[in-house]
């Protein structure tokens, strides 16, 4: 956007230099036209009449209404301030709307001075336009920050200047905001979570837990009392530990007892840590991050939600790459979830939207060229039996199967493709879920279930592995008369590669959230792809 400060500054400067007092109501319009003259000249040279950029839209908005003031009705200005307060609850800052300048202009306008009234009217429109833009598109343009961003912006079907005028002259500004608000349960739960953590911040946040000693269950240590206070501040306990002496004169607040162990395990689980109750380096680091870190992660998730959640269907699959979980979501909430394995920092899972169209049972796996070069070629050179043992066939450039010993494996580029045949040892497991895309990414089973036991599961080469793929397959086909678990098992037992089309394509969103709400509980994760800092910096500009 880039016009929040400049637009207000230009108007305020103009006020100082050119405005005498006026007494005619019509002269408010003249003041508005005078203030916007230069801006209007620029705006009219631009072809995009559906832009939500305030520098373009504000002058055109007033041109549509012959420069008459838009916010003279008390209820409209009340609605504007209410909606701006609500926007701050959704993670925006007052500075995003020049709220201080707007409030000062509103107060000055009460004197009846025409120049002040004109200034307030323009600043109010500027704030309203920015609010609409930020809710529809998000404040930050993801395309400007991430070359791998693959979602398109919502399409503006009508001239925003006309629409804003219609609502201000009719149903009001709040009705417009209600029309464009995101109606999504996850988004609203994030708003509630942000409110909770901001309230914690207002109460002083939390103090650090001394990290000199690894804390284990049943230990007695003064740091345990600080641990109780820290957890209580985030709502894990209702009160801090008792300071009364227990047996043998031991301060019970220092005892790492079973009740506190349960709370620590819950904290660890919510932060993607090993839930063993042992407080070492990673748990200390998570405990001692300030509340502002949590607030910013929630603000980032809300911004990402504005990018993604506006046009989702009632039923869709959501993959949280950072959290390494997959969800089947319906209009009633999350129907099903499973642990997942997503792309590593070196082979990132892309963020995009598509539709699952079919499942493939007993799939083959064509090894991508990058994995062939970086992983497979060195293994084959060291172990000639690797291909046979792992059920690979070799194909030449024409797609013909050739003997492995006919290939010069010592060459930099042997010019062949590896295809792993169906079976329990196949890297894709026994089923994959296809939404054909330019990234060659899909969801699939795996032949190595042990990796799901890890807490940090950003381990794959880009595709998404599911811990319980057959449950997922059954849910995707639920209600189909010709489908059953027995039929699926029969297909699996055949060993033949079999495609099964879904009755209707299922939308799938591959997203990246480092904070989210699940079953009413807020979860936080580290930032495996190191994306948060850049987005936060842009969000705070």
Automatic annotation (TrEMBL):
Keywords: Cell shape, Cell wall biogenesis/degradation, Peptidoglycan synthesis, Signal, Transferase. Residues 58-194 form the L,D-transpeptidase scaffold domain. Residues 222-287 form the Peptidoglycan binding-like domain. InterPro entries: LD-transpeptidase_YkuD-like, LD_TPept_cat_dom, LD_TPept_scaffold_dom, Peptidoglycan-bd-like, PGBD-like_sf, PGBDSf, Transpep_catalytic_dom. Residues 316-480 form the L,D-TPase catalytic domain. Belongs to the YkuD family. This is Murein L,D-transpeptidase.
């Amino acid at each position: 956007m880039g016009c929040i400060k400049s637009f207000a500054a230009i108007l305020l400067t103009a006020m100082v230099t050119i405005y005498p007092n006026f007494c005619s109501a019509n002269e408010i319009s003249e003041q508005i036209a005078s203030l916007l003259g230069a801006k209007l000249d620029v705006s009219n040279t631009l072809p995009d009449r559906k832009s939500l950029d305030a520098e373009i839209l504000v002058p055109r908005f007033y041109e549509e209404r012959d420069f008459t003031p838009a916010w003279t009705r008390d209820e409209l200005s009340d609605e504007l301030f209410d909606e701006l307060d609500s926007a701050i609850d959704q993670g925006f800052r007052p500075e995003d709307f020049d709220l201080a300048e707007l409030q000062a202009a509103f107060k000055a306008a009460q004197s009846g001075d025409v120049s002040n009234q004109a200034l307030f009217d323009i600043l109010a429109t500027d704030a309203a336009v920015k609010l609409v833009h930020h809710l529809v598109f998000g404040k930050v343009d993801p395309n400007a920050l991430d070359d791998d961003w693959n979602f398109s912006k919502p399409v503006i079907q009508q001239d925003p200047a006309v629409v804003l005028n219609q609502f201000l002259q009719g149903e009001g500004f709040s009705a417009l905001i209600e029309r464009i608000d995101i109606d999504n349960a996850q988004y609203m739960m994030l708003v509630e979570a942000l409110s909770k953590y901001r309230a914690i911040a207002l109460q002083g946040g939390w103090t650090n837990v001394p990290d000199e000693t690894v804390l284990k269950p049943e230990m007695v240590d003064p740091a345990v009392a600080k641990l109780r206070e820290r957890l209580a501040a985030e709502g894990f306990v209702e009160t801090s530990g008792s300071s009364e002496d227990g047996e043998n004169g031991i301060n019970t607040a220092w005892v790492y007892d079973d009740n506190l162990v349960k709370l620590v395990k819950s904290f660890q689980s919510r932060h993607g840590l090993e839930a063993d109750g042992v407080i070492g380096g990673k748990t200390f680091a998570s405990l001692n991050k300030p509340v502002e870190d949590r607030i910013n992660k929630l603000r980032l998730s809300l911004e990402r939600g504005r990018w993604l959640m506006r046009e989702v269907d009632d039923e869709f699959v959501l993959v949280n790459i950072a959290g390494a979980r997959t969800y089947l979501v319906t209009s009633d909430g999350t129907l099903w979830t499973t642990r997942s394995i997503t792309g590593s920092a070196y082979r990132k899972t892309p963020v995009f939207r598509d539709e699952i169209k079919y499942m493939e049972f007993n799939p083959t796996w064509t090894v991508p060229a990058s994995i062939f070069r970086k992983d497979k070629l060195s293994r084959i050179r060291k172990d000639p039996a690797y291909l046979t043992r792992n059920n690979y066939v070799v194909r030449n450039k024409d797609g013909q199967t050739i003997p492995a010993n006919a290939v010069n494996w010592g060459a930099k580029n042997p010019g062949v493709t590896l295809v792993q045949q169906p079976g329990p040892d196949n890297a894709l497991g026994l089923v994959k879920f296809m939404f054909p895309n330019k990234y060659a990414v899909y969801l699939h089973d795996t032949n190595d279930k042990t990796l799901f036991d890890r807490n940090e599961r950003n381990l794959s080469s880009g595709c998404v592995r599911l811990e319980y793929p057959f449950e997922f397959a059954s849910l995707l086909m639920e209600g189909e008369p010709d489908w059953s678990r027995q039929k699926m098992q029969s297909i699996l037992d055949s060993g033949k590669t079999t495609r099964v089309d879904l009755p209707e394509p299922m939308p799938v969103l591959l997203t990246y959230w480092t904070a989210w709400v699940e079953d009413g509980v807020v979860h936080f994760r580290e930032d495996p792809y190191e994306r948060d800092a850049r987005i936060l910096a842009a969000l705070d500009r």
